[in-house]
């Protein structure tokens, strides 16, 4: 059993990798989930993707039914068993819980070709009937302290840092940081993220259209360049306009 911090790091590690747990039939959706649960809990899930919810997790995970009010957590395993997924099912890992309308899933073989790496997609819950929530090992006292009080070396210190105020819009500029400055919720208008191009600030270009975020989605911010907020982690090339973000918690 691993800690929640380790599980989140594992999710980031998976992105862009080809996972073939059993060595059969290419990079199936189940390969990613089976590898994750085996790494996390040392339990080898059996069956097709839809059978995941019938596994015995030995009290180390809880299976939840997806209801209209249910919002998954990062690290949950999403299981699809209805509609087009009725025969074999589909399965993936929750990368961002989103809200009751959509969540960000990390998955393989969404297109049925079994030849692509684990990648992100916003899902609207169609056919998603269950979520498997693993239990995690205690972080320990030192990890809890570290998570609550970020070391100064991990923060980009400057006048701009003092402009972050809970309940307000995200600031216009913040230097790059190893740790998140704050988390924020997408405002009522929703947001579409952008990809940054260019090798320095003089020729940066932000092209909107990478992903659509529903109002209320929780976002972590690591840098802000001329109003564009770098989200998820410190080297992820996805950006959201600062006026769409309402600061919820400052770290």
TrEMBL record:
It holds the Pfam family CHAP. This is Autolysin. It comes from the Bacteria. InterPro entries: CHAP_dom, Papain-like_cys_pep_sf, SH3b_T_C. Residues 4-133 form the Peptidase C51 domain.
């Amino acid at each position: 059993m691993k800690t929640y911090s380790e599980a989140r790091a594992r999710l980031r590690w998976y992105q862009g990798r080809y996972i073939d747990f059993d060595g059969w039939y290419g990079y199936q959706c189940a390969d990613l989930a089976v590898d994750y649960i085996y790494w996390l809990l040392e339990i080898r899930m059996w069956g097709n993707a839809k059978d995941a919810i019938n596994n015995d997790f030995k009290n180390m995970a809880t299976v939840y039914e997806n209801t209209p009010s249910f919002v998954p957590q990062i690290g949950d395993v999403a299981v699809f068993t209805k509609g087009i997924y009725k025969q074999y099912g589909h399965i993936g890992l929750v990368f961002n819980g989103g809200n009751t309308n959509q969540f960000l899933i990390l998955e393989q073989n969404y297109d049925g070709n079994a030849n692509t790496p684990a990648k992100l997609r916003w899902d609207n819950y169609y056919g998603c009937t269950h979520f498997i929530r693993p239990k995690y090992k205690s972080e320990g006292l030192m990890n809890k302290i570290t998570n609550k009080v970020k070391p100064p070396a991990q923060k980009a210190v400057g006048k701009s840092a003092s402009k972050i105020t809970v309940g307000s819009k995200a600031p216009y500029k913040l230097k790059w940081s190893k740790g998140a400055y704050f988390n924020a919720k997408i405002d009522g208008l929703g947001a579409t993220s952008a990809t940054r191009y260019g090798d320095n600030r003089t020729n940066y270009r932000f092209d909107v259209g990478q992903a659509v975020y529903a109002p209320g989605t929780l976002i972590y911010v690591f840098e802000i360049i001329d109003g564009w907020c770098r989200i998820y982690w410190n080297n992820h090339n996805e950006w959201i306009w600062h006026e769409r973000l309402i600061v919820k918690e400052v770290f």
